[in-house]
Amino acid sequence: MTVGPHTGRRLILRDSVDNAGIRAFAEADGWTYQGDIARDPANQAFYEAKWSLPGGLSAHFVADEFVDARYLVVAGDDDAGVQEASARLEAALDVWSVADLETNFDVCVYPFEQARSVLLLGAGSPERAVDSVFTRVLEAVRHKEPRVRRAAVQAMVYAGWPEYREPLAELAARDADPEVAREAGLALRVLEERHG
């Protein structure tokens, strides 16, 4: 997904939001459909549709098979415009709020559920670090099940916060599972490339 320098939070859509609802909102809000990118599993590309918005912004719908979620994200050169358009979307469509994602994480008890809940929390994280999300992801990093720790690593990549560098470095150096350690090292490199 190629976006502008400012990107809003990924607004993870609940199952009640169908394609017709997204199209109806886009039309009512003055969006112009730009096209889509076909799903390409061989190149790890998810299905994506793009609209241009008034004010030079863009909106991207992504069917993310890794997280097993669909989301919308607004991007563009004008940060205030991105935030305003994101807020309109969040108010109009049934999306997971950050608080809902945190509650979902808190109530999951089985490792499979815990892994998915931390992935959703990472994908739907705010643009800047907040303690309530950060502490939950770190809780998943300390989980006894490697699959939950691996999901926490991916959640950190989705969030992209520079504050995750230290926990990733610790996992890369000390995790008992070699796959978790390897993925943490790769994730650390991704964050370092993003933040210098």
UniProtKB/TrEMBL annotation:
InterPro entries from the entry?
Answer: ARM-like (IPR011989), ARM-type_fold (IPR016024)
Record protein name field: HEAT repeat domain-containing protein
What organism is listed for this UniProt entry? Kitasatospora putterlickiae
